[in-house]
Design brief:
The chain is α+β, with helices and mostly antiparallel strands. The protein has 2 domains: 37 residues, no CATH class; 174 residues, Beta-Lactamase (2-Layer Sandwich), CATH 3.30.450.180. It has 12 helices and 5 strands. Strands 2-1-5-4-3 form a 5-stranded antiparallel beta sheet. The protein is globular.
Amino acid sequence: MIAGASSSVLEAVARALQLTDPERSHLFDLARAADGDSLAARPRGRRTAHQVHRQSLQQVLSVITDGIAVVRDQRQNILATNALARAFYTSVIGDGSGIPNLARFQFLDPESRNFYPDWEMFAGMCVAVMRADAGRDPHDREMQDLVGELSTRSDTFRQLWGAHDVRSHGSGTKRFHHPEVGELILSYEELVITADPGLVLMVYTAEPGSTTAERLRLLASWNAPMHAPETAEGQESATR
């Protein structure tokens, strides 16, 4: 039992077990939850997947034009995107009739094995990040329901969840295979949105001058909204 353990005791346990930074944070999250001090117990507005985000946050996404930018919550729901992300995640978003969920796509949609060439690595990271997020808010009913659904429908998810691995997304490089432009090798950075607890901004970028950068430009151009060309008369009217 870790309920009531002091910070110094928890630090000693973390050192003795040689925990990584994400594992150490997870230990402290579990201790706070055992003491009744989890995120769920703190007074704050509870967020659902159907809430609309602040307009200023969407504006931030919109000005990111050369990279893929998405906002996700702790349940792996994609809540906001920029234009390039909508084109990039077309397999995940589908027809747009529901809330896109990266974990459901990973474990329940066969297309994920094409989109993620390194599928096993993506699967392990997805579950480890979810477990870390679940530790910060262990009473999150929607997270519990999602874990139950995936455990029932995916043997792989159930095995990975049972391994109790925890990880932060942080930064790194990932490989994708997009149905329109082929292989993409992208660097990523995950940024915590401090104004909205539980939300993170994920930005994927390509190395300048690389084949991936050119393919992202193609993807953006193919999915750009079509605008009617402005006539000379319209330009003249605009200057009056």
